Model the fold of this input.
Amino acid sequence: MEQIALNNTLPRVFAGHDGITSDVWQHDIVMEHGKRYLISAESGTGKSSMCSYIFGYRQDYSGVISFDGKDIRDLSIAQWCDIRQRHIAYLPQDMRLFNELTAMENVELKNSITGYKSRDEIKRLFEEMGIADKVDSLAGKLSIGQQQRVAIIRTLCQPCDFIMLDEPVSHLDEENNRVVADIITREAAGQGAGIIATSVGNHLKMDVDKLFRL
Done:
């Protein structure tokens, strides 16, 4: 996948609203493979909705979202399965960890499907992110910041053309933000993947090719 494009897209809930100043809604924007994008937003402006639209979870929008020129509303279930396993790695804001499983088990659930990383590679990511001692801890017993790092590791356990992260560092301090940002940009660079990160204030500390404001 080389491009994700939004053409005159608008959440239906915003229809008829005056004074929309977004760089994204009701504009034509293109996000390209290999480049880094930051979506800076205030609460309630639709950043999580945008991610859900791109990932095919929701269709309550007007306009067109396309992958390499193909309207995503025309994609089959099989095509969506392929996109979610091989083309777009997605970290939702709510992380969607299973609290009753350990941190490693949460990561291995995804890696067992993709087979993308070895167990040693996963352990190194835990070490780099400063949570090596939490590998066997139940996800529900971890702090929110630790859960975010586990969810990021899980997100990185697949091949992809784009890594899409909804508020990935909202509960991390500056140092852990930098560590996570370095790891994400390294992993993306290894695949030539693009990065799309959203934020309502605590931005992922990476260099960006384009900043959009919602």
Helices lie at 47-54, 77-86, 103-114, 119-128, 144-155, 174-191. The chain has a mean pLDDT of 96. The radius of gyration is 17 Å.
